[in-house]
Design brief:
heterodimer; A: 293 residues; mainly alpha; 15 helices; 73% helix; B: 526 residues; alpha+beta; five-stranded mixed sheet; four-stranded mixed sheet; 19 helices; 14% strand; disordered N terminus
Chain lengths: 293, 526
Amino acid sequence: MKSAISQELSVVQRTIIHAVLMVFSLLCMIPFLLVVSASFSDEASISEYGYSLWPRQFSTFAYHFILSEPTQMLKAYGVTFTVTITGTLISLIVSSLIAFALSRTDFAYRKQFAFFVFFTMLFNGGLVPSYMVVTQLLHLKNSLFAMILPYAIVPWFVLLLRTYFTQIPEALIENAKLEGAGEVRIFAQIALPLSLPAMATIGLFIMLNYWNDWYLSLLYIDKPTLYPLQLLLYNIMENINAISANPQTQGIALPGQTARMAIAVLATGPIIFAYMFVQRFFIRGLTVGAVKG
Amino acid sequence: MKIRHMQGKLALLLTIASVVTLSACGNGNNEANKENAAASPTTNDTAATTTNGTDAVDTSKHVDLDWYYPGTQQKDVQAIEDAMNKIVNEKINASIHLHTIDWGSYDQKMNVMISTGEKFDIAFTSSWTNDYLQGVSKGAYAPLDDLLPKYAPQLLASMKPGIWDATRKDGKIYAVPNQQIFAKSFGMFVRKDLADKYKDSLPASAKGMPDFEAFFAQIVKNEKGVTPLAGGNAATGLSGYEYYEPIGANDSPGQFVQGDASLTVVNQYERPDQKQAYETAKKWAGMGFFSKDIANEQTDVYEEKMKSGKYAAVAQVMKPGGEVEFKNKFGFDFVQVPYQTPYISTDGILSTLNAISKTSANPERAMMFLELINTDKDLYNLICHGIEGKHYVFADKDKGVIGMPDGVTAETNGYNPSSDWMFGNQFNSYYVDATQVGTWEATKALNDSAVVSPAVGFAFNPDPVSAQIAQTKKVIDQYRVALGFGSVDPDKYYAEFLKKLKDAGSDAIIAEKQKQVDAWKAANGK
């Protein structure tokens, strides 16, 4: 493929294409660079001159402020990693199990179950009932599972996976059965390996879902030791706003814009690496569900 | 077929089973927590019934009270709670548990707690976070009319009836106002060095914003790089607001003319003084009184400019001691020049309240606690400033001035919530700066002398005209700041503004406001 292109295109054409792509990737990078640069800038210089690609006046005050209590930050990272990893595993297992069952035409209650999953995409009980279920029925307040279970099944991901599973030829499954494989073995050794790109893509989506979430913890977590990263950062920001609006606070130096940017850097940092690991599956996975809606 | 069914069911069972085990884990955690919580407070059942003076108050049973309020999580809050409980336990045989909820979460959290009927005893509520009137209409809070005289007589007596009236909904009191500045008036905060330099052109007190023209002209003429009037988030420019009392949202159409006892709702935007204000604004803009992008200036930009001395003055709500707060915040000395008669409105009182939950198992004891926190100086200052020697030291004990202990700064202090106004009567608080001495007395005097608006206790319910309010807000946002800072020509845009306001439904809002005011007047015999 690559050689085919290089044969067809002249040097000029290739240079143009590369130039366009380089400009495009620069356009993608510059906002992020601005964020990083602003996070290392001096507060006053930002309000005076605006953002610049390189810090006009270098300062790590924003990071000092946010990281003033490193133990809490580390704990929050720990909580977020735990929730993200366990959550992604649980969610992937449960979702793929449902999706596999739903994909099988020989599953008797397929329609009912598919409807059951699909229905929740359109209608849900809303905040109050789900809060009651989590706190009063499951008693999950102030526990890690309060941040994991509510997102364990996202119907949209289940439907995506199901579409992918249906692409596995039925004959393959029939054959495996004839060879004496049980349903679990078919699922684990045939369906899963065949749908690795889909699993990786959905896994990444789920992972981002858990990583970025602060809403569940806002509702269900009171104990600062169980704060995940996003909630901690959100609170730091809101508290900065509240403190600077409070007439009573006495001349505490607070970073404003720069802290916002530093928070963005800290919040996005680690998860960027997840993309690198999953990237090779990602391109194939993006067409999940494109063939059969 | 049958086998397949079985397998389907098995899968389902497995899913359910895993969910159940997971929740069981959660359960275990929770129970452990409960045990911890039960073990920690020192139950003091032997403490006799209190000597509170009131007869027949049975406090023989020890109770726990949960208090929710917004704030920044403080490291040493447990130590404060323990120290407070020594006093609370002895006086009313109860333990208080402090639940500080981060600012960003408070609204949402209280909303779900109230909607789901979760148990708590006391919560901070106000007109700006955990909305008081909404909470009352949801039935979140217990009526206090019977509890107050019986369990909190001193607290009840500490504020005049007009203040309590502001908290009434359908005739009942549902929350305790925290005493602080109730009287509201706009004033100009002027940098002291400039005020001294040009004192001939600066009025000692003014009747309205336009009176500052001569002073601002001096600044433009003589002070290079200093803009006379600041913008910032609260700034609306000139609009004649100083002559009116808002009903509902600050800028929605339909206000009382200040001091009008008949409570007639007028469209403030149509009044001649409004047009006058916009014309003045246009003139001022031409004279260079505002910075160029003032209409869009963000708070942090405004604050940076204040700190670097690029503004000479800013219009803000005044209060005794306000200069000190400004100095702390911006580093310059300021003087306040009033340009509005102080008055007390519902809004000023509803800005900080504590309410007792309807779900509270012990509303009497919660009421007694509120009495205690509002009258017991030691207890109140514990929650405001922490423990003496650890979180603060006395700089001048006689005058009640405190400071940080040696080597402790605002950033490293383990307990420094800086929100006295949230916990009780602020006039009981220690001063954190010697320059503040006397502020509380002055504030109290101001509260006592200020005119209580004849509309106190009236709360506008915007629901019937919420569509019109949203529509008019769009129009107001589009025109008011631009007109108020003279960025556009009033000859052309003022008429257009009024027409669009009418089209958006301002008349319906005003009619609805008048209707509600009349109904309230009839019900309360005003």
